[in-house]
UniProtKB/TrEMBL annotation:
Keywords tagged on the record: Cell membrane, Membrane, Transmembrane, Transmembrane helix
Lineage of the organism: Bacteria, Bacillati, Actinomycetota, Actinomycetes, Streptosporangiales
InterPro entries membership: LeuE-type (IPR001123)
Tree of life domain: Bacteria
Record's subcellular location: Cell membrane
Pfam families: LysE (PF01810)
Species: Actinomadura sediminis
Annotated TM spans: 39-66, 73-91, 150-174
Name the record gives this protein: LysE family translocator
Topology within the bilayer: Multi-pass membrane protein
């Protein structure tokens, strides 16, 4: 069991540190609202992963993979949500530019940060399929499927939280520079385009 856990942890660590939507979301949230909101966004992402891990362990993600309609509905919903987030970021950047970079930005609450992390994760069906395809490969012979799958999911979540904590610390340390109006506007534009790109890629995938 120990060797299986270590092997899975190594693979999950590589997946975790690969730059993607979660990295962009945590960095943007930290710059916009501070370390607390960044950590809450990471907690939302972790909660979504826990839901997907439980669904995979119970065999529910197999239904998602088998049903083209269910997968497509979730995929399109997730793509629309990401495009909406990206559009919001670009609109805020445009407002700031129109006001000389000094337009006030609504405070980002901890609840909103957590909700964004959770919903973004839950509306990504690729995570469910990822768990369904990856976890069984590391299950030792004779090990309980549900309990071991949940253990693997918890390992992945722990690694994700540790990585997000590092991102939050780094972004928090550089927040004074990143929060300058011109830099923040540029960051909003970059993250807005990135979110829209993630959304369009999710919509185009099958």
């Amino acid at each position: 069991m120990l060797s299986a856990c270590l092997a899975f942890a190594a693979v999950a660590a590589l997946v975790t540190i690969t730059p993607g939507l979660d990295t962009m979301l945590v960095l943007r949230t930290t710059v916009a609202g501070g370390r607390r909101t960044g950590l809450l966004a990471a907690a939302g992402i972790a909660s979504g992963l826990l839901c997907w891990g439980a669904a995979s362990a119970a065999g529910l993600t197999a239904l998602l993979a088998a049903s083209r309609f269910a997968f497509d509905v979730l995929r399109i919903a997730g793509a629309c949500y990401l495009v909406w987030l990206g559009g919001q970021a670009l609109w805020r950047a445009r407002r700031k530019a129109g006001a000389g970079g000094d337009a006030p930005e609504p405070d980002l609450s901890g609840a909103a940060a957590y909700r964004t992390g959770l919903v973004t994760n839950l509306l990504n069906p690729k995570i469910g399929v990822f768990y369904m395809s990856l976890l069984p490969q590391f299950l030792p012979a004779g090990a309980p499927v549900f309990g071991t799958s949940m253990l693997f999911a918890v390992i992945h979540i722990a690694e994700g939280l540790a990585w997000c904590a590092l991102l939050v610390c780094a972004a928090g340390a550089a927040r004074r520079t990143l929060a300058r109006p011109s830099v923040k506007r540029r960051l909003q534009q970059v993250t807005g385009i990135a979110f829209i790109g993630f959304g369009l890629r999710l919509a185009a995938e099958h």
